[in-house]
Amino acid sequence: MNRTRTRLSAVLSFFLNPRLLLCAGIGWLVTNGWAYILLALGSVLRIGWMIAVSSAYMAFLWFPFTPEKIVTLIIAIALLRLFFPHDRKTLKRLRVLKRWAVMKWHGRKRRK
């Protein structure tokens, strides 16, 4: 139980880092937020093409093969490295997660 609590605390402290949240918010605006803003503006100003484009994009996001969340995460990590290059704790955690993912991936490929 204590080990689970420690891991959960580490994961939450990583994802609830204000710098990462800021970058994730900007990444979300780049990938999704513009569509919501465009829909709101189109509805208020009664501009049909804005409503059509934003509605079509939001409908597209509901398809299961949409890589939008992956792209948002990639943008957030890139912005984190760009805006906060001296945030050693978060960047170290990202390097550790990358190493872990690579090890898992290569381990999975060898077992087949």
Secondary-structure map with pairings?
Layout: H1 2-15, H2 18-45, H3 48-61, H4 68-83, H5 88-111
Helix pairs in contact: 2-3, 2-4
Explain how this protein is built:
The protein has 112 residues and is mostly helical. It has one domain. The radius of gyration is 19 Å and the shape is elongated. The protein starts with a helix and ends with a helix. The model has no long low-confidence stretch (mean pLDDT 87).
Order of helices and strands: HHHHH
Please, how many helices?
5
| Counted beta strands | 0
The best one-word shape is: elongated
Mean pLDDT across the residues is 87
Bin the strand percentage.
under 5%
Name the helicity range: over 70%
Sheet with the most strands?
none
Summarize the model shown:
With 112 residues, the chain is mainly alpha-helical. The chain has helices spanning 2-15, 18-45, 48-61, 68-83, 88-111.
Give the tags.
112 residues; mainly alpha; 5 helices; 86% helix; elongated
